[in-house]
Specification:
Order of helices and strands: HHHHHEEHHEE
Number of domains: 2
Number of helices: 7
Radius of gyration: 27 Å
Strand order of the largest sheet: 2-1-4-3
Number of strands: 4
Strand content: 5-15%
Mean pLDDT: 78
Structural class: alpha+beta
Helix content: 55-70%
Low-confidence stretches: 4-12, 204-208, 233-249
Largest sheet: 4 strands, antiparallel
Shape: rod-shaped
């Protein structure tokens, strides 16, 4: 296997592990709750053992999101039945307990879904707030620029603060020029010269190894182009408003 193939295989494997990690953590939280519930059941007059599992589901939902919380709810139901309800170490239960078990399962699923959904919404709001903050800072920084080259440098700096890398070209073919770029992307920017010319001419889009390649324009007036390299799995870098692009003129 070549070095490139090995790196691709490792990257794919790492990506799959990252997707499965929240579910593995959810299973671990339920396992800890099961141990705590079992120890609690050995105490005299132990009651309300199900509260341990509901707490575990709440923690999972708040920390990991809705889907891992739903998995935790199902695992908690099975663990509660298997380890804590007579006959122990069996999934069988008396017919009189059917309603109690159904209520436990429904309650666990509702707790997991609601807590997970609230957590997901909070993460989305945080991500949007970060994007808005980066966009505002970029627009304010660009508005202070006195020269097009200085504006291009500040644009690249703001994109880097947002977690991506960029290269900016100013002008139109054949006089367009590379004005600023992330240090790690100089060679990549040079290889995009032909694609940038096509994009500036309106004949191409998203070519090369860049995550995205855009024209910078105000109305019909083309100011230049920007290439973005966004880390795998990260949200796309926020777009810069047309008003802030006026500093590139």
């Amino acid at each position: 296997m070549s070095e490139k193939s090995a790196s691709i295989t490792a990257l794919v494997g790492n990506s799959q592990w990252q997707r499965l990690l929240p579910y593995a953590l959810a299973a671990g939280i339920v396992a800890l709750a099961t141990c705590a519930g079992y120890a609690w059941s050995l105490l005299p007059d132990a009651r309300n053992l199900s509260l341990v599992f509901f707490g575990a589901i709440l923690v999972t939902g708040a920390w990991l999101g809705a889907r891992p919380a739903l998995l935790a709810a199902v695992l908690a139901f099975l663990a509660y039945n298997f380890f804590l309800i007579e006959p122990r170490f069996s999934l069988r239960f008396a017919a009189a307990d059917v309603l109690a078990f159904v209520s436990f399962l429904v309650g666990a699923l509702l707790v997991g879904a609601l807590s997970g959904r609230l957590s997901d919404r909070a993460r989305e709001a945080t991500s949007r707030l970060r994007d808005v903050s980066v966009l505002f800072d970029a627009s304010r920084d660009l508005a202070r620029a006195l020269r097009p080259e200085e504006a291009a440098e500040r644009l690249v700096a703001q994109i880097e603060r947002g977690g991506a890398e960029a290269a900016v070209w100013l002008g139109t073919p054949p006089s367009h020029r590379l004005a600023s770029y992330s240090q790690a992307r100089r060679q990549d920017a040079d290889t995009l010269a032909l694609q940038v010319a096509y994009v500036l001419a309106g004949d191409g889009k998203n070519n090369g190894d860049a995550t995205a390649l855009y024209r910078l324009a105000i109305g019909e007036r083309v100011l230049g182009a920007v290439a973005l390299w966004t880390p795998r799995g990260a949200a796309p870098a926020p777009r810069i408003s047309s008003e802030s692009m006026s500093t590139l003129t």
